[in-house]
Design a protein that fits this description.
single chain, 193 residues, alpha/beta, Rossmann fold, seven-stranded mixed beta sheet, 6 helices, 7 strands, globular, binds 5-O-phosphono-beta-D-ribofuranosylamine
Length: 193
């Protein structure tokens, strides 16, 4: 296997809005010589996102962009991504829906991680809904992003068994642990590694 250094790795931006535990797992993954990506930028639409701290800890450039006006938001984002030569975007708990215009304008790869077995439970409150429907399994999915919510082509999924006394909290934790493994695997798969 080829050794990948920072120079030939895919320049990646991770978009977050909250805790950033997936961001942390992606940063760790990116530091391995087997990883095809190098994380150059963290973008958040929330200045209070805890995950922004990882920018400080791992010395990765971070930007908060939070314009209500979509056109201004999109254009600002596009110019930041261009200036940093970003080739791939990993959405990791980014709570803002990217516009059609933005998706068309950005020429690189955009992927997302979602805490359900898509196409089931698109959108929010996935664990709550899976429990309410008495599902036996749930899980997580990494998929390409298109202009329809949580609907792009699936790259990888991991199934998780729902136990008898499962609560939203325990299921969230259980699935999150799998998310941290699945996201790096899906990225390797994209680049045939
Ligand atoms: C994860 O469950 C992810 O699948 C969803 O939002 C959550 C983000 O968690 N899109 P974190 O910020 O990575 O800890």
């Amino acid at each position: 296997m080829a050794i990948l250094t920072g120079i030939n790795k895919v320049k990646t931006a991770v978009f977050i809005s909250g805790n950033g535990s997936n961001l942390k797992s992606l940063i760790k993954f990116s530091k391995s010589s087997k990883s095809p990506i190098s994380i150059r930028l963290i973008i958040s639409n929330n200045s209070k996102a805890k995950g922004l701290n990882y920018g400080k800890i791992f010395r990765i450039k971070k930007k908060v962009i939070n314009f209500r006006n979509t056109k201004i938001f999109d254009n600002k984002l596009i110019s930041i991504l261009r200036n940093n030569k970003i080739e791939m975007i990993c959405l990791a708990g980014f709570m803002k829906i990217l516009s059609k215009y933005f998706i068309r304008k950005f020429s690189g790869i955009i992927i997302n991680i979602h805490p359900s077995l898509l196409p089931k439970y698109k959108g929010l409150n996935t664990h709550k809904r899976a429990l309410m429907n008495k599902e036996k399994y749930s899980g997580c999915t990494v998929h390409y992003v298109n202009s329809r919510l949580d609907s792009g082509k699936i790259i990888l999924q991991k199934r998780v068994k729902i136990s008898k006394n499962e609560t939203e909290k325990t299921l969230t934790r259980k699935i999150l642990i799998q998310e941290h493994k699945l996201y790096p695997k899906a990225i390797s798969k994209i680049f045939n590694l």
